[in-house]
Amino acid sequence: MAATPWGSFKPWRSSSIVFSALALLMLSHVSEVAARGAQYSLNNYLNKHVLTGRKLMAEAAPVVDVTDYGAKADPLTDNAQAFMKAWKAACNYAGGPSKMVIPSGTYITSQTVFQGPCKAKPVKIEVHGTLQAVSDPSLYPDGDWISVEDVEDVIFKGGILDGQGQKMWPYNDCKKNPKCVHLTVSLHFSKVKNGLVDGVTSVNSMGFHTSFTFSSNITVVKLNILAPQNSPNTDGIHISTTATISISDSVIKTGDDCLGIIQGTSNVSITNVRCGPGHGISIGSLGKYSDEKDVVGVHVKNCTLTGTTNGVRIKSFPSDISIKASDIIFEDISMDNVSNPIIIDQKYGLRRSSKDSSVKISDVHFKNIRGTSASATAVSLTCSKKFPCKGIQIEDVNLSYVGTRDVPYGGSCINVQPTFAGKQNPPNACAAGSPQD
């Protein structure tokens, strides 16, 4: 085949690009199903848009193989430049969808930026092998290992991301140094509109496994995250300043929050996620930086937590930074030997501080939470005296105590008057002698 000005393309040989294109079309039309808690079904979308699918099947879609741009699956080659050259060819294809393929094998790579904007829509990164990070922090000046930036309609599918974090964790001093610099993020989507992450495995990240910032209309499915329980600051999924994101059917085993939903985030759906070990599913921490924005509309449903140090949690610093966290639902949650199963903590990080948190927490629902608690305090609601929590509901909670301490089992409520409904175990969760101002 004669060479094309776009690089070394291979003929389109399957329908995978068609389905990828349709997945991104689904994301671009996400407003049709963006009611909180709704799950975006590709099958339903395909049925609804059969004619669009037939039209796309008639179009040719180029495939860019990174090995044609110098990538080598060997223990010596840094493939960052080869990957970015291949990406540029796929990204700049103006004839419709395109795909960049990383074949089977293990590819060493330092900081790699898949930069947009792109002419191709959608553009797909399909990884069949393993990407392995270089264990040298100086090679990640932007704090990211693999990043996708300023792209509309993009898919990242498959592959193993081996962050080699075990070689870097000894240099993490964040427990002792509040001004520490966090280690490198394995996969970062920044300023992405209509993005899909599908079937990616992240192992031993240096810092966060995945991060989504300044983005919108994101779907994450079948993510598999693995790092030791004692690996520092290895949050599984970190989300901030992002609107409309759906996370489902994923397994997260790590050393920090399985999911961290931070400031500026709205319309979040988390379904069928298994978490543990780790620090649980958290909103926050909030109220640390002066430019923070509200967190609104978080729905966590049908998730399982096993052996985590926290369960479902909202946390904020005692500070003068005023934002809101509202319209939050944790429901149908299964817990197995979880410490601190239900928490609102507005003294996070500075328990002895005389300041109160200025984060206003309201309209929060804990519904149908069952299983076992490793802590004698199963429900701990520590709200701000300055801005007490409002509209807190605890409904159908059934958590049996399996801890080893011979102490009364119950809860603690400070600066909050929650409403209770349905089954309550522990009973009288606010009857531990703590003030309810």
Percentage of residues assigned to helices? under 10%
Distance between the termini: 76 Å
Which residue ranges are poorly predicted, with pLDDT under 50 across at least 5 consecutive positions? 1-59, 432-437
Characterize the biggest β-sheet: 19 strands, mixed
Written description of the protein model:
The protein has 437 residues and is mainly beta. Helix content is 9%, strand content 42%. The chain contains four helices and 30 strands. Strand 2, helix 4 and strand 3 form a beta-alpha-beta unit. The radius of gyration is 23 Å and the shape is elongated.
Q: Which keywords apply here?
A:
19-stranded mixed β-sheet, mainly beta, 9% helix, 4 helices, 437 residues, eleven-stranded parallel β-sheet, elongated, disordered C terminus
List strands and helices in order, with pairings.
Layout: E1 9-10, H1 16-28, H2 42-48, H3 50-57, E2 63-65, H4 80-91, E3 98-102, E4 106-109, E5 112-115, E6 123-127, E7 130-133, E8 144-149, E9 152-157, E10 160-162, E11 185-190, E12 193-198, E13 201-203, E14 210-213, E15 216-221, E16 224-226, E17 237-240, E18 243-253, E19 259-261, E20 266-275, E21 281-286, E22 295-306, E23 312-316, E24 324-338, E25 342-345, E26 360-373, E27 377-382, E28 390-401, E29 410-414, E30 419-425
Parallel strand pairs: 2-3, 3-6, 4-7, 5-8, 6-9, 7-10, 8-11, 9-12, 10-13, 11-14, 12-15, 13-16, 14-17, 15-18, 16-18, 17-19, 18-20, 19-21, 20-22, 21-23, 22-24, 23-25, 24-26, 25-27, 26-28, 27-29, 28-30
Antiparallel strand pairs: 1-2
Helix pairs in contact: 1-3
